[in-house]
Write a structure and sequence with these properties.
With 441 residues, this protein is α/β, with parallel strands linked by helices. The protein has 16 helices and 20 strands.
Length: 441
């Protein structure tokens, strides 16, 4: 592509402001009124045609840590796949190109980006972080039938038939860390929770409350919910410490919140247990605190040089090499999402080749027809109707990760469905209290 757009890692990234200035984005209503086809008829790929994939995520701003590192991972994925012959349809290999759009974690910009990617750029699949931005993109999915993915199954509902959560099962995997912690440190009896008050924080709060209750750990006081505009985290740390907890839970706080919270806990002398959904760029936190302070931190996202990922049960192409290449090319950028979007593409490629088509409906049918799929951490079930109203989340095992000696280490893989079979009513109770059930959203 030859547009003079903002660029990340050598791939085209279209900013909202620039796109609006060029008047590339048309509203769906205007498109339909003009008679432009927004449907997705079955088409045969030309032998030289490149398959375009949309990457609609925050690439700048406070949530960029869950977008931009994933685009970097997709660039590596595309290079490897294209070098190996591409995606094979009708016996012909087709290269893959990612088109990135920075939605800045804003619903209106997500809608503009979805319209641009699907209608004008002709992508065959759109990957998103999801959360607060999914409602912006959903009208495009509804009117075009485009297949979208999210990292947040809490976006799912009966009215999202073309939205899938095939990689990350946020926030329900957080139960595995709590359960492991309760079994391995039974002396820890109390916890406090803090989180930003948004579409990532609230379902995660409900999940941690259910997990702590199932584990017999008392949560002291109400979870401390803070505004997204917060910049001073000293009072939040002070307030949590005033409860005298055995465990401080940072929920699914953004990296821009986790780092100052951890620094404040360190500066205010906390020496207890910390559990967090993510610990992105944990080496940077360690540099500002200490190896001793970070020892034992429990979270959910491994480094991919972990020996545990060499298991035959893991469905990710050469994770150790991927980790090595990623860190050589993008030093200091490895985080929770660095591999997740690439893992989604592995499943998408498998389904497209199985369907012998890249059309969204065909790929979705091939992906879900057996009721199971090859998740990164093993065979998993298409699941979720009981909690999300639709079985569009690929749910199975998830790793529990602990920092030991300054390095993340997988301690165990635990089954999310097994936990849910024992404690699902608790999770639904807390989801309901926080208005997070599909029929409340």
């Amino acid at each position: 592509m030859t547009r003079n757009d903002n660029r990340y890692g050598g791939k085209t990234v279209i900013s909202f402001a620039e796109l609006t200035k060029r008047q590339f984005v048309k509203s769906l209503a205007a498109t339909v009124a003009a008679g432009t086809a927004v449907g997705l008829p079955r088409q045969t790929l030309a032998q030289t045609e490149t398959i375009k994939i949309g990457f609609l995520a925050p690439l700048t701003g406070p949530v960029a840590a869950w977008g931009l590192p994933g685009l970097y991972g997709c660039e590596i994925w595309a290079e490897w796949i294209n070098d190996a012959g591409g995606v094979v349809i009708d016996g012909v290999g087709h290269s893959v190109e990612f088109i990135g759009y920075d939605n800045e974690y804003d619903p209106a910009k997500a809608r503009a980006g979805a319209s641009q990617l699907v209608i004008d750029d002709g992508v065959k699949f759109v990957m998103m972080l999801g959360g607060d931005t999914w409602p912006g993109a959903q009208p495009v999915a509804d009117q075009t039938g485009m297949l979208f993915s999210t990292l947040l199954p809490s976006d799912l509902g009966p009215d999202t038939p073309t939205l899938i959560a095939p990689a990350e099962v946020h926030p329900i995997y957080n139960v595995t860390g709590v359960e492991w912690l309760a079994e391995n440190r039974p002396e820890l009896k109390t916890a406090v929770i803090c989180a930003q008050e948004d579409a990532l924080g609230l379902p995660s709060v409900a999940t941690y409350l259910a997990a702590f209750e199932a584990a017999g750990i008392e949560v002291l006081g109400d979870p401390l919910l803070f505004d997204l505009a917060t910049t001073d985290f000293a009072p939040i740390a002070t307030r949590m410490l005033s409860e005298g907890p055995d465990i401080i839970c940072l929920d699914t706080c953004y990296a821009d919140y986790v780092h100052p919270l951890m620094e404040q806990l360190f500066q205010q002398g906390y020496e207890g247990q910390v559990i967090s959904c993510t610990a992105d760029f944990y080496d940077q936190i360690t540099a500002k605190t200490s190896v001793e302070f970070m020892e034992g931190l429990v979270f959910q996202f491994p480094d991919f040089d972990d020996p545990a990922l060499e298991s035959d049960l893991v469905n990710f192409n050469d994770p150790g090499k991927f980790f090595e290449v990623y860190n050589e090319r993008y030093p200091g950028q490895w985080g929770a999402v660095s591999w997740e979007y690439a893992a989604i593409m592995d499943l998408w490629k498998w389904a497209a080749e199985r369907a012998n088509s890249v059309e969204p409906a065909d790929v979705l049918a091939a992906m879900t027809e057996t009721g199971q799929g090859q998740h990164t951490f093993g065979t998993a079930d298409w699941w979720g109707e009981d909690l999300f109203g639709i079985n569009n989340a690929l749910v199975g095992n998830w790793p529990v990760v602990v920092i030991e000696g300054g390095k993340a280490k997988i301690k165990e893989f635990r089954s999310i469905p097994d936990w849910y079979a024992r404690h699902g009513d608790l999770l639904k109770k807390h989801f309901t209290e926080y208005g997070q059930m599909w029929n409340q959203r």
